[in-house]
Structures are given as C-alpha cells and as structure tokens.
Amino acid sequence: MLLCFFFLTMQTVEETELCFPQLLNSSCKRTMQHPYVSLIIHLTISFISVLTVFLNLLVIISICHFKKLQSPTNILLLSLAISDCIVGFLISFQIAQIDDCWYLGDIICVLYVILDYVITTSSIGTMVLISVDRYVAICYPLYYPTKVTAERARVCVSLFWMCSILYNCVLFRDNLQHPGRYNSCSGECLVFLDYFGGVFDLLSSFICPVTVIIILYVRVFIVVVSQARAMKSHVASVSIQGSVRVTAKKSEIKAAIILGIVVVVFLICTLPYFCITLIAENAAVSASNVTVILFYVNSTLNPLMYALFYPWFRKSVKLIFTLQILKPDSRDNIIV
Asked: Is residue 224 part of a domain?
C-alpha cells in the first residue's frame, strides 16, 4: 500500500538499482526517481502523516481531559480518534517504501501489516458501535440513559480492541511464525493470506459490519424523518415542558445526522479499497494506489468533520491552544 504510486515516478530500466547492493543475487530492485518527484512525495506523505496525528491528538486530549465530554458517544469517538492517530503514524512508514524497498526487516514488516489490519478492524468495529449507539438513542430514547452508559461504552470499546488484536494475530499466525517466508527477494515486504482466510476476513471485518451499519442507519433515518414531521406539526402547540422534550429530541436527531455523515464518509473512503480487494485475482494485490490514498485520508477527515459540526470540539481546541487546560480546575469546565 504505497502512497507514492499516486505520483509519476518516471522509472526507466537504466534507473533501476538494487535495494541491497551487497546481495547481488537475492536483492530486490530499487526504483530510482527524479529528485523533485521524490521531494514532493516525501513532503506530501509527511504532511498528511503529521496533520492526521496532530488533529486526532486534539480529539483525544479534549475527550480525555474534560469530564463533561466523556459521554458514551464521545467515548466511541475517542476510540475512533485513537485508531486514526495510529493510522497517521502508519502513513509515515510509506516514506520507507518510496523506492519499492523495505529496509526495516521481516519482523517489523509483519508487525506493521498486522497493526494495519488491527486498526482497520477496530475502526469498523467502532463504526458499528456508533451506529448501535444512535439506533438506541433515536429508536428507544427512554431506554438510552439506562442501557447505554459511559462504563458500558468503555467495556465495549476495550473488547473490540482486544478481539481485533487476537483475531489478526491468529489470522496471520503463519507469517508471525515465519517472517519473510513469502518474500521473493531481500527488501520486499510481503505478507500472505490464503484464499479462505482472505474471504473470511473480508466477510467478518467488512461485509458483515457494513451491512449492520447500513441496516441500523436506514432504520434511524426512517425514525428521524417521522419524528421531524411530528415535531413540525406540533411545534406551535407545545407547552414549556413539551418544548424541552422537543429540544432534547432535536439534539439527538442532530447527533444522529452528524454521526451519520461521519459513517457515510467512512464508507465512501473504505468501500473502493475493499471492493478492489474483493475482485483482485492475485492474493499479493491488495488495492490500487488511489483507493489506498482515499482509505488513509479518511483518518484525516474525521477530526476536520468534528471541528465543522461539534461546537464542543472547537471550544476545547481553543482551551488547549491557550493552555487553559493546565489550570487545576480545567477538567470541570462546561464546554458542551
């Protein structure tokens, strides 16, 4: 999965060298690029990596620091921000592969790929939890405060992460036991997944979760539309108490719409990657370069959407930049 394929590399036969010149008979070929092209690729990857880490760290600090922000929904957003932040670090590994050579060793290669899969699985699992959270809040509002708590959200998130790590370690156990076994030459990072393992992973890690997400959000959309019509027809005749209830319903509907946008953007960014993975005939071909770029950029877009839609995020960022969070009582600030 190389971001650098998005750019023209102007490779020629004469511009090909070896990744490890001392290993003449076993080294992979190294792609030589024009200095300006290489500079643009380095700067672009570095910028995306730093921006992704920085923006998601703001989300992590905001939710972890301010007690008023530690609601069940925000805990799920925290899990998503952690996975997106790790994606930012993973993007920086693409710099090491710009010339089609892997210099970090076979063990690091396997761990890197497994971590990539763990983050992907955790992100999709978090999206499922977000969909369930909004489904219960909109369709069963009376049960939401008692059934969906911050503690239960933390437990669910922790279970998803632990299961994701265990699942992918088992899935790639052969690669962990024999790192570099499937490399055709020195300097290659190739992790193999057999056909049945690939199909099972695709079903369990993408098709089934995405199906659940779509079904839940279709149900949420239907209920939101019906509630919006009901509120519109009765808004003129409600009492003060009714107005409070309407405001509460409006806030829940707004939250559902915002998180729905986050889910839709996630699906738009990830669907092309998994669709190409599904139709790829060669097990070594994971996806095209453009779909990989789109897949990674989703981690950068998420905190930007929070800044656009959530006032609490903008307020917390202001407090972070002005160093107000260093005050002893800053954790209790009401910024919602």
From this structure: yes
